[in-house]
Design a protein that fits this description.
The complex is a heterodimer of chains A (111) and B (114). Chain A is mainly beta and 111 residues long. Chain A is built from no helices and 11 strands. Chain A has a single domain, classed as Sandwich (Immunoglobulin-like), CATH 2.60.40. Chains A and B meet through β5 and β10 of A and β4, β5, β8 and β9 of B.
Chain lengths: 111, 114
């Protein structure tokens, strides 16, 4: 019940396209859902996060869509750029505690 | 401002030796977390300190792993009698206390056990 499942494992998108990464969770007690971006040799960087009381949050080209009834959330990257090429992790936590991470998605944006 | 810092950035050790990894959280952050990132296991939680509360050690994989946090700031993760399967990147994160759900990660320590 602690798992967070992420898909796809890898994604190739053309420059200017939309990248979509999906996550599903089981534990309904989770109350915080962040996305992290990680470049090789670096630590994960917090990108955007959402709480379950809203269905969508947008920050620049990055949008989280949240479906509480389906226990799913997704990251949309609009106008994808080669600089967005990185590994993306979804995660979930309860009451500010430990993060449970998805397995990661390796995104490659082709010029 | 300064982010989370970790040292050393790389550590190579022989099987059976003990290692200590250090984490300096963001100033004013009272919550501190350790995670491990490896190819086969992804990002996994190890231990969590929140203020003066007892730490959540539920993620420590064996009794060879321990961590302490001195003065509510710096933390040290100790691995005794290292094994090859301990090779991974060890990541530290910190967050604010009240409502501090956002966790900010350091650059990690890459541990290689030969």
């Amino acid at each position: 019940q602690q798992q967070v499942k992420q898909s796809p494992q890898s994604l190739i998108v053309q420059k200017g396209g939309i990248s979509i990464i999906n996550c599903a969770y089981e534990n309904t007690a989770f109350d915080y859902f962040p996305w992290y971006q990680q470049f090789p040799g670096k630590g994960p960087a917090l990108l955007i996060a959402i709480r379950p009381d809203v269905s969508e949050k947008k920050e620049g080209r990055f949008t989280i869509s949240f479906n509480k009834s389906a226990k799913q959330f997704s990251l949309h990257i609009m106008d994808s750029q080669p600089g967005d090429s990185a590994t993306y992790f979804c995660a979930a936590s309860k009451e500010g505690g430990k993060l449970i991470f998805g397995q990661g998605t390796e995104l490659s944006v082709k010029p | 401002g300064a982010g989370v810092s970790q040292s050393p950035s790389n550590k190579v050790t022989e099987k059976g030796k003990d290692v200590e990894l250090r984490c300096d959280p963001i100033s004013g952050h009272t919550a501190l977390y350790w995670y491990r990132q490896s190819l086969g296991q992804g990002l996994e939680f190890l231990i969590y300190f929140q203020g003066n509360s007892a730490p959540d050690k539920s993620g420590l994989p064996s009794d060879r792993f321990s961590a302490e946090r001195t003065g509510g700031s710096v933390s040290t993760l100790t691995i005794q009698r290292t094994q090859q399967e301990d090779s991974a990147v060890y990541l530290c994160a910190s967050s604010r206390s009240t409502g501090g759900y956002e966790q900010y990660f350091g650059p990690g320590t890459r541990l290689t056990v030969t």
